[in-house]
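Quick one - inputs below.
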Amino acid sequence: AQSVTQLDSHVSVSEGTPVLLRCNYSSSYSPSLFWYVQHPNKGLQLLLKYTSAATLVKGINGFEAEFKKSETSFHLTKPSAHMSDAAEYFCVVSPSGSARQLTFGSGTQLTVLP
Amino acid sequence: KAGVTQTPRYLIKTRGQQVTLSCSPISGHRSVSWYQQTPGQGLQFLFEYFSETQRNKGNFPGRFSGRQFSNSRSEMNVSTLELGDSALYLCASSSGLAGGPGTGELFFGEGSRLTVL
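Output:
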């Protein structure tokens, strides 16, 4: 069985300050992990993915995430928030090498204050 | 390269009616997955089709069905609509099987927003 927990439903930061969105997972297998972003009334866009290569993964728009197996975490970070980063973010886990369905976290709504 | 295209983008139906939603995947992608997104339940997996075969199915009643054509385009159908079916229905395509290594990342369309009155 697998699951993913996004520890914060809402995060609020000021523009120019760091962003940290937390995600913990559980998986019986070596997982693939993804972060997606959803802007209002839009579909989900892939930010980055981890598939057992480098543990520090760089994505689009300055985001990165670090896979920590010992902590079963895959937190998303960005050094400096921009107003356009305001959106909902989803952490997703999938068993590696499997066609089973992906498991989505409940989402974290990021607000960026001017 | 064109992205995932979903039609219609918005639609309003009444209880008891049925609805068909369409999804055209990215050219060359063979997998199409469908998700239902609601404020209360979040993103829930409906089903995945790969090469015209249903590969995975989520926990939805039989009123929800789908199919995939030889050109990889997919449709989903909901019969006997209920108020609780109001949601954003998202389609996603991937080159390989959804979630698999290497080619399993999903590319989403903008969704079809269904309102049931």
